[in-house]
């Protein structure tokens, strides 16, 4: 068994993780990202990019 | 008149049933065959398992939902399928059998929890706990609360969480359980009395059965191994990966690792996810021959339109199934955990003793719902005389894993992992296999809100209440 001891969060990180206003903004951002990706997955856009790359 | 029969009432089965019923005509029938008459929202079972949610909250009765939507329900286990006669043989609770005719069949039976695959594993006659069903979660909670009493008396307790077989999947559920358990022990002020350990079959920490995840973080590309190490360092959790649990006895877990070394870990309380297999359903052709081997892979998952049989390194994005249609019988589909993946996403490994230590590809939650919807629309295509046109492969499907760290919406937290696609697609994204504009990992209170919103939103959707189609899978 290994005990990890790397990248422990700093006090500042812990503060931002629980800071309601900042977390509300993150909530909106993450929900938007999930909904946008679920409803409009970026298939076509990337296929076009790949097609252009291979031309 | 078209008859669609759906085996299973989990995420995939329920999604398929609701969409089919919505789109089919009054003369058409949608019949769900399932052994339980309730729906379980599995992601919330972790909260039941630590006593933070009552057991009635993640479940609801299906019969009123089916009555409202005009879906027929038959309670029982699907035992045999006769694809030539287009019939399913189901066994009821009282042992009677019934043949249910179909024009289209959806296998959405979910996993068979293979506790027998590891001697001594599981809550039925074994020594470990599970949170894979509501019954298991309740047993797990009771066993956990017994340990709490010991800790409150000042005793030291060893807790092991992880996977209970070399080929287990669903590490995300175990991760969520371990982080909730840590937080619950803190809340009860007994965290110092517990040594919490993570024991898993992942090739590296943070693999989660999806080959690990890379995401942008403050100007760097961070991988999920660093993310998980950071989380475990913060929560003082010990870990051991690359290990297959080979047996469990009272207080001892036996394991084998990549090097072929065998060892033991002592425990007082353990929650280990078993291997998932396909539900044992026998397929029989018109001549009475058993054709199960033609319809399923050796683990019992239904073969669909995937590129099967390739070595791991040669599997590409196009090999992942996308229509979920059986190549043998075109009117049979599989959704959710029931479909066979072309291989694992994580790198497979067999040690010198021949023990397979491979994280199997997860197909739960979001993936189950999406495949259920795809299958429903492909059946509608076929009813209209077309070939299936709807496609969504794991190599083009988004995934979200929200591992809560306490249920509280005030001071709770969650590790939010969003990935696109679930199975890395190196043709589209040559460097990391995933879209770094979408893929992200972060911890914070926002995740706790999202987890709570998903609980409420998905149960609302699965009940088929007004506007349910607006909530994405």
Tell me about this structure.
The complex is a heterodimer of chains A (about 55) and B (about 475). With about 55 residues, chain A is mostly helical. Chain A has three helices and one strand, in the order βααα. Chain A has helices at about 10-20, 20-40, 45-55, and one strand spanning about 1-5. The radius of gyration of chain A is 19 Å and the shape is flat. The N and C termini of chain A lie far apart (about 50 Å). Chain B has a domain at about 5-115 and about 275-395: FAD/NAD(P)-binding domain. In chain B, the strands form eight sheets. A five-stranded parallel β-sheet of chain B has the order 5-2-1-9-22, covered by helices on one side. The interface between A and B is large, with 33 and 41 residues. Strand 1 (about 1-5) of chain A pairs antiparallel with strand 15 (about 240) of chain B.
Unreliable residue stretches of chain B: none
Q: Looking at the chains present, what oligomeric state does this protein adopt?
A: heterodimer
The largest chain-to-chain contact, stated as pair and per-chain residue counts, equals:
A-B, 33 and 41 residues
How would you classify the helix and strand content of chain A by structural class? mainly alpha
Mean pLDDT of chain A: 80
Distance between the termini of chain A: 51 Å
Spans of chain A of 5+ residues with little confidence (pLDDT < 50)?
A: none
Supply Rg of chain A: 19 Å
């Amino acid at each position: 068994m290994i005990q990890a001891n790397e990248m422990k969060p700093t006090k500042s990180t812990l503060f931002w993780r629980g800071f309601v206003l900042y977390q509300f903004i993150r909530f909106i951002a993450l929900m938007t990202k999930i909904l946008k990706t679920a409803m409009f997955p970026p298939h076509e856009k990337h296929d076009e990019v790949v097609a252009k790359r291979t031309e | 008149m078209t008859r669609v029969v759906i085996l299973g009432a989990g995420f995939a089965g329920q999604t398929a049933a609701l969409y089919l019923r919505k789109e089919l005509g009054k003369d058409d029938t949608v019949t769900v065959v399932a052994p339980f008459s309730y729906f379980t929202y599995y992601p919330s079972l972790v909260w039941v398992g630590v006593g933070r949610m009552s057991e009635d909250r993640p479940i609801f009765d299906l019969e009123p939902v089916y009555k409202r939507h005009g879906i027929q329900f038959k309670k029982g286990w699907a035992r045999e399928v006769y694809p030539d006669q287009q019939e399913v043989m189901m066994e009821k609770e009282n042992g009677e059998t019934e043949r249910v005719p179909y024009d289209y069949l959806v296998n959405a039976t979910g996993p068979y929890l293979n506790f027998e695959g590891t001697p001594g594993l599981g809550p039925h006659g074994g020594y470990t706990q599970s949170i894979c069903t509501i019954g298991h979660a309740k047993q797990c909670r009771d066993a956990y609360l017994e340990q709490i009493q010991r800790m409150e008396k000042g005793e030291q307790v060893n807790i092991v969480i992880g996977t209970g077989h070399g080929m287990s999947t669903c590490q995300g559920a175990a991760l969520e359980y371990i982080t909730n358990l840590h937080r619950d022990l803190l809340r009860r002020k007994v965290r110092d009395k517990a040594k919490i350990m993570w024991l898993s079959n992942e090739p590296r920490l943070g693999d989660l059965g999806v080959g690990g995840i890379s995401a942008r973080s403050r100007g760097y590309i961070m991988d999920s191994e660093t993310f998980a190490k950071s989380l475990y360092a913060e929560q003082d959790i010990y870990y051991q990966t690359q290990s297959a649990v080979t047996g469990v006895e009272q207080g001892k877990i036996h394991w084998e690792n990549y090097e072929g070394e065998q060892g033991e870990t002592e425990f007082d309380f353990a929650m280990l996810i078993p291997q998932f297999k396909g539900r044992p359903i026998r397929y029989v052709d018109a001549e009475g021959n058993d054709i199960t081997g033609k319809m399923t892979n050796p683990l019992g998952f239904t073969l669909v339109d995937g590129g099967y049989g390739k070595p791991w390194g040669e599997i590409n994005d196009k090999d992942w199934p996308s229509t979920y249609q059986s190549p043998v019988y075109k009117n049979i589909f599989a959704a959710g955990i029931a479909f066979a993946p072309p291989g694992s996403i994580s790198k497979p490994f067999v040690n010198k003793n021949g023990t397979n230590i491979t994280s199997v590809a997860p197909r739960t939650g979001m993936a189950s719902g999406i495949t259920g919807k795809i299958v429903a629309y492909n059946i509608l295509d076929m009813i209209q005389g077309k070939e299936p046109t709807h496609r969504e492969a794991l190599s083009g499907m988004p995934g979200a894993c929200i591992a809560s760290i306490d249920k509280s919406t005030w001071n709770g937290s969650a590790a939010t992992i969003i990935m696109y696609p679930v199975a890395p697609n190196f043709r589209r994204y040559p460097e990391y296999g995933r879209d770094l504009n979408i893929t992200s990992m972060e911890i914070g209170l926002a995740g706790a809100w999202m987890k709570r919103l998903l609980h409420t939103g998905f149960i609302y959707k699965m009940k088929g209440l007004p506007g349910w189609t607006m909530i994405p899978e």
